[in-house]
Amino acid sequence: MATHQGGETRPPKALAGPGRAMDERFGAAGFARKAMRKAFPDHWTFLLGEIAMYSFAVVIVTGVFLTLFFRPSMSEIIYDGSYGPLRGVLMSEAYASTLHISFDVRGGLLMRQIHHWSTIIFLAAIVVHLLRNFFTGAFRKPRELNWVIGVLLFMLVMVNGLFGYTLPDDLLSGTGLRILEGVLLSLPVIGTYVSMWVFGGEFPGDLIIPRLYVVHILLIPGILLALIPLHAVVLTWRQTHTQYPGKGSTNRTVRGYPFYPVFIAKTTAYFLWVFGVTALLAAFFQINPIWLFGPYDPGAISAGSQPDWYMGWLEGSLRLMPAWEIDAWGHTVPMNVLIPALVVPGLLFTGLAIYPFLERWVTGDHQIHHLLDRPRDVPVRTGIGAGGVVFYGVLWLAGANDLIAYKFDIPLFWTTWFFRVTFLVGPVIAYFIAYRVCMGLQRRDRALVEHGLETGVIRRLPNGEYIEVDRHLDEESTASITDARPPAAISLSRPELEGVKAPRARTRLGRVRLALNRRFLADLPEHPGDGERERKAVER
């Protein structure tokens, strides 16, 4: 930066002209000055979303490279490439071009593996980022729309990942495609028509790979390119960042470092770290070796087929469902496919999308929240989240029930029934365990505030009594426990007045809401100022 008389700084001459031109046409100077001063929190959990964003950038760049060599065609050819074991085998052009990328294009196999690994990291970062936002209450007003967009992004990326690893047309991806066809056929009345429309005729047809290719590289990435900036930049910058409770953190202040130069330097280095780790995984850990699977053959049967981790829970859902069917009006409805493949995912994603609004209905909380909750301070929400994690995890493990049975020499019947029972009771047990852990941590916090930290030093008093010496904590150390913050819920109950029930208690739905509200409020810790805020909210 150049400096003129009076100490005022000016941009370098090389940037002054273009900057003035941009400002005159788009009014960018004011936005740029505000953007440079924007504070970004320094807590490590805020980097989880950045992992997803940077992985998406790597996916796009490597995907562009792969499109230069991949042929999305199911026309059959005789392979005569570099991989000897498959030379002379009849296969689709899609599979042959993938082998060509892997063995004949310089750096092609590395690019394929970087693309695949970055997709896996992308989805893992989305899941962990989503869990962080859930457990800390970051989805509350005014961020409900951002939460819904995040859930939609998760769905789109998961579906696009499925389409992506189907494109090589190998035996493993073809098995997943066969499952997709079974799901479509399970739709009552319209199933056969939908399947014929998607595949362009009888399975597998010769159109599905070109169609999935268009969706994979154009349609879904285009939607993602619109939603990710909206989710990560536009709404975040408009609504300001959330922050954890602590010394100096309030619902009206934002603590952190400015975007320029601190945050931009950190985030650039972090992007390089994400790319470096992805490249190391791609270089040293093989993934999706399609040449070992061979081309897809609809008549071939494979054992031990496993999808990528993010589709494993759907695989487990299909494996756990009993063979139930319903025959009605000349139609057979295969519940063993319809429920696990459509109903279970529908319940999961719908539940995630509406949860912010459902919690607001239960808690009566319509305040704006920029200050996050500690998970221990909201035991009900933490218990629900723990139950959801177990629900997802059990289905994910059930997707490998055959491998578990084989590796540990356990009957497949036992593993299937174990996961069926765990699927039902596991989330309930996880809820109560997480709830009790939160209560224990709250008691520990109260002990820290009242008595201080245990030092392990034992002192003998003049009367012969032994006591442990405690070290009292300063205000900064206890601020996250004691400082005032907006309550996570308010009481919706109102006592009867001269035998007349409150309006909320006169309907069945209202009584359910009051019962859930009491349960949510039961073990929330009290903070200074909570009572006054609650009284004002009830009066409003």
UniProtKB/TrEMBL annotation:
Listed Gene3D superfamilies: Cytochrome Bc1 Complex, Chain C
Gene Ontology MF: a single term: metal ion binding
Transmembrane segments: 51-70, 116-135, 147-167, 212-237, 258-285, 337-358, 378-397, 417-438
SUPFAM superfamilies for this protein: a domain/subunit of cytochrome bc1 complex (Ubiquinol-cytochrome c reductase) (SSF81648), Transmembrane di-heme cytochromes (SSF81342)
Biological process according to GO: respiratory electron transport chain
Localization (cell): Cell membrane
Major localization class: membrane
One Gene Ontology term, aspect cellular component: plasma membrane
Region annotation Disordered: where it falls in the sequence: 1-20
Catalytic reaction equation(s): a quinol + 2 Fe(III)-[cytochrome c](out) = a quinone + 2 Fe(II)-[cytochrome c](out) + 2 H(+)(out)
Coiled coil region boundaries: none
Name the record gives this protein: Cytochrome bc1 complex cytochrome b subunit
Organism: Actinomadura viridis
